[in-house]
Amino acid sequence: xxxxxxxxxxxxxxxxxxxxxxxxxxxxxxxxxxxxxxxxxxxxxxxxxxxxxxxxxxxxxxxxxxxxxxxxxxxxxxxxxxxxxxxxxxxxxxxxxxxxxxxxxxxxxxxxxxxxxxxxxxxxxxxxxxxxxxxxxxxxxxxxxxxxxxxxxxxxxxxxxxxxxxxxxxxxxxxxxxxxxxxxxxxxxxxxxxxxxxxxxxx
Length: 203
Hints:
single chain; alpha+beta; VC0467-like; Alpha-Beta Plaits; 2 domains; nine-stranded mixed sheet; 6 helices; 21% helix
């Protein structure tokens, strides 16, 4: 496992913009086989979005209808962006609230948190209107809720062999095959589930 996180105060140990991969030994059912994109990780704690767990029984067009986000009269249907945009279970915190993880070709000065030069996080209804009308980001997913950690909590979980981490890529973040993402992330590290050691700090 790359990165020494024994000193939470060292900025070089923070994993903002990285992906967390739940170890097979993860004993929290909410995070079993999850892949999480870390949007925030600093001395105040961490916040991330699960990117491989679909929300049941809801599609983006259905959600837009529920939110009464209407199309201009000249547009007969929602945009291909909206139809293709997945809705995921982003984590157990604020599960009724929506967070859009997206490419940085969309940016709201008031509402977008730029995670890095490629990825942003926006949590307002305006981005949903933009997606509905085809003016939204090129790549996006809507997450219901997020995963959160108190100061030092994520570092402790990593030291206890709860998580691996890897660099993100567009397919891990936005690829349509949610079932494949977990194994694809492990493959980026050159490991298979069967090869993972349960000894802390080794893979």
